[in-house]
């Protein structure tokens, strides 16, 4: 079981902003996960990885791929209180779900 969080590298978010967006994505996708998968993921150490992508369109492309794989996923839009304009798409979480399925969606991305 694994979760991948993809954050936009093209926005120049500060470390704290990036951490907050990754946390929002992780929790949002987790909340949309069925109880059995949640339990398996939690019991196996909550494996997660943070990856980078450039551009809003890439995140939506990956979200579509996650949908086709039947994986929980969540797109995050910033509230606009600090560094970014309101509604800016910042991150996507894919999973938790089977590691092979998550890798089919995000396996070609680089670590953040």
From TrEMBL:
Return the broad EC class: hydrolase
GO MF entries: peptidyl-tRNA hydrolase activity
As its record notes, the protein acts as a catalyst of: an N-acyl-L-alpha-aminoacyl-tRNA + H2O = an N-acyl-L-amino acid + a tRNA + H(+)
Q: Which Gene3D superfamilies match?
A: Bit1 (3.40.1490.10)
Residues in coiled coil: none
- What are its E.C. numbers? 3.1.1.29
Question: Which SUPFAM superfamilies has this protein been placed in?
Answer: Peptidyl-tRNA hydrolase II (SSF102462)
What family, per the record? Belongs to the PTH2 family.
Official protein name in the record:
Peptidyl-tRNA hydrolase
